[in-house]
Design brief:
Immunoglobulin-like; disordered N terminus; alpha+beta; 558 residues; elongated; four-stranded antiparallel beta sheet; 48% helix
């Protein structure tokens, strides 16, 4: 699924066509013309040693045809000294034409040709792409359109509307799958209990409860789709996405929003424990009596907004992919796909919001509803640490290292287990005279989870929780193979930034591109680049689940 999404997201913005012209007796010139989309550039024929991938042509000729000279650039490239590659490089923008002369010893011939190219813009480069051509020259010469790669726009050919429809449906299917996957990510799934707890105090009327749940889902869809549509419109108008990317990054990693999210979780937890009831000021209550429906909708809207903001660090990749799609010239596609994604994403939250409406119809004898609230309080205390952990990692504070994080979780879930056993009581709890089957099952699950956590204090990877916990590199009680120390390269020189940046699984590497590139060249090894983030929970999942696999770790180490 991921490969399919990436293949669609990385459409090559170059369309090719060929034509043939006769220049002399038995001499013909094949012209390859590239149509390059705005903001992208194509490299010239080079060649560039230790540089970018130049555009190259290869030919498979019949016996009655031969090449005259090498491929030529009909249009002259723009030459510029590239600081990264430290050489002068030629590029084409919008259009590029190349010509190859061929001499025939007969009346006609069929030539097979192939072109390989790479394109970049000011932010990224796409992988090298190749294209095959079958060209008739001589008496059968005619302009031939290249067999373009899927989804490549053809400037001189009429794009088939059915192809565009197929492409849109492929995106919609991807969006449905991504919406389902996003629900199971570490920064989305914990929001489900918050949704249940929020609607717990909702209306006792079944019809109104359903209406509020539907409105909640509608707001989730609206908050995902409308901003994306606005962003696409603004970006297309102004012509840049750096500011947008920085805003999303700020929400995911900056101390201020993460502190706010942490406090929201803690305040909810304290309320569930019975410390206080979250109530509006009296003047607001009086106002809400007059505008009850309006007040309810405002509260539901802000609950949906909290969900969207908190979950964005996990849903960001799909959203980013859709924004990238917008730069390929499609306008409605990203908006439609975002609508589908958000609708699938909102579905379980709508169901979770409906659940309290059913709960409120049940009798309250035995105080089991208050027990549900208290259990949610324990869970929210545990989940609130994720936001403090993000701040700790992003700013290298080393306050909430892994063993402290685990110690708090072990304590919280142990207390939750004793609460389920009836050994701990809160102000609004009823007396637990006996333990039912359901409660016993929860006790077993809770204490089993605590037992699972304990080995983590001494370095067990706890892969199932890798997205929630801080990295193993922050932990003191770990085996030598997992420790991250300040690195020294082969020449005895300390690796830049290794005093506060670390790699998992005891891997040795670099944190400065130039330093890494020079070392890779000196030892004759390929360069593996990991683009990651301190607050990226999916990155931690990748490191814990994929990098740790023996066959993968062996490659990374050796």
């Amino acid at each position: 699924m991921l490969c399919g999404t990436l293949s669609f997201a990385q459409q090559n913005p170059v369309g090719w066509k060929t034509s043939v012209s006769q220049t002399a007796d038995s001499v013909y010139q094949i012209i390859f013309e590239a149509d390059i989309k705005n903001s992208w550039h194509l490299y010239d024929i080079g060649p560039y040693e230790n540089g970018p991938n130049a555009t190259t042509f290869t030919f498979d000729l019949p016996e009655n045809a031969s090449l005259i000279g090498d491929i030529e650039m009909i249009d002259q490239p723009f030459k510029k000294f590239d600081d990264m590659f430290e050489m002068e490089i030629g590029t084409f923008e919008k259009k590029a034409r190349f010509g190859q002369k061929i001499k025939l010893t007969g009346e006609s011939a069929t030539v097979k040709a192939s072109v390989e190219w790479m394109v970049c813009d000011d932010k990224q480069c796409l992988p090298p792409t190749d294209e095959d051509f079958i060209i008739n020259i001589g008496t059968q010469s005619k302009t031939t359109i290249a067999n373009a790669t899927a989804d490549t726009e053809r400037p001189v050919a009429d794009a088939n509307s059915s192809d565009r429809d197929k492409s849109l449906w492929a995106y919609i299917i991807d969006a449905i799958l991504w919406g389902l996957v996003a629900i199971l990510t570490p920064c989305v799934f914990p929001m489900l209990p918050m949704t249940v707890s929020f609607f717990m105090k909702g209306s006792k009327k079944k019809a109104k409860g359903r209406a509020e749940a539907s409105i909640y889902g509608f707001f989730i869809i609206l908050l995902y789709t409308l901003p994306i549509a606005a962003i696409i419109l603004i970006i297309r108008t102004i012509g840049g996405d750096d500011t947008t990317a920085n805003i999303f990054n700020w929400l995911s990693t900056h101390w201020l929003p993460n502190t706010i999210f942490f406090l929201v979780f803690i305040i909810f937890a304290a309320s569930f424990f019975g410390a206080f009831d979250i109530r509006l000021p009296s003047w607001m209550v009086n106002k809400s009596d007059q505008n009850a429906d309006k007040g309810g909708i405002v509260g539901i809207f802000f609950m949906a907004l909290t969900l969207v903001l908190v979950s964005f660090s996990c849903t960001g990749p799909i959203v980013s992919t859709i924004i990238i799609k917008a730069f390929s010239g499609e306008f409605w596609t990203p908006i439609v796909v975002m609508l589908v994604f958000s609708a699938v994403f909102a579905l379980p939250f709508i169901l979770a919001a409906l659940f309290p409406a059913v709960l409120n119809k049940l009798p309250k004898s035995g105080g089991w509803l208050n027990s549900v609230k208290v259990i949610l309080g324990f869970i929210e205390v545990a989940l609130s640490l994720k936001f403090i952990g993000t701040i700790d990692q992003a700013y290298h504070l080393h306050i909430l290292d892994r063993e402290i994080y685990l110690a708090i979780w072990i304590t919280v879930f142990s207390l939750m287990g004793f609460y389920l056993l009836g050994k701990i009581k809160f102000a609004h709890d009823s007396e637990v005279k006996h333990i039912g089957t359901g409660r016993l099952a929860l006790v077993i699950i809770t204490f089993s989870f605590v037992v699972y956590l304990i080995p983590g204090m001494w370095g067990a990877p706890l892969k199932a929780l890798s997205g929630y916990l801080t990295p193993l590199t922050t932990q003191d009680f770990i085996v030598d193979s997992q420790k991250s120390v300040r690195q020294v390269n082969d020449k005895g020189k300390t690796v830049k930034y290794s005093d506060f940046l670390h790699l998992p699984h005891g891997l040795k590497g670099f944190f400065d591109y130039k330093e890494a590139s020079e070392y890779a060249e000196s030892v004759g090894k390929p360069l593996f680049i990991d683009i990651t983030g301190h607050g990226c929970v999916n990155c931690r999942e990748m490191e814990a689940r994929v990098w740790s696999a023996p066959e993968v770790l062996d490659i990374l180490k050796n």
